[in-house]
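dumping this here before i forget
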Amino acid sequence: MRANKGRTIAYWITTILGPGSFVIGGTLFLAHGEQPTQAMAHLGLSPDLLYVLGVWKILGAIVCVIPGVPLLKEWAYAGFFFELTAAAALHALAGDPFFGSGPFMVASPLIFLGLVIASYVLRPASRRLS
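structure:
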């Protein structure tokens, strides 16, 4: 019983820090915040992409925390995986450092990816496809 409680706590911590953080990111994207706008310009992407990604981030985070809808959860986690690996790859291709003091680096999306993967793996049975 104690192991299940520890797993549940670990699930919620990784879910709040991983998928849950996409609410903040999505809001910044929708508001065309300074950092995401600069990142899009730095990567040579249209700032209009911020609207699409912002909506997807927020919807994905909501799906991850609401009960039920296990198929949508699979899609949300897959979307986070694709978004974060694409972000890391684009930063690497732009010549950004893996770690660094500036706002653009390869490691940031990979750190969040680790949290997203941990959240996915730690999900209770009630949040999985049967």
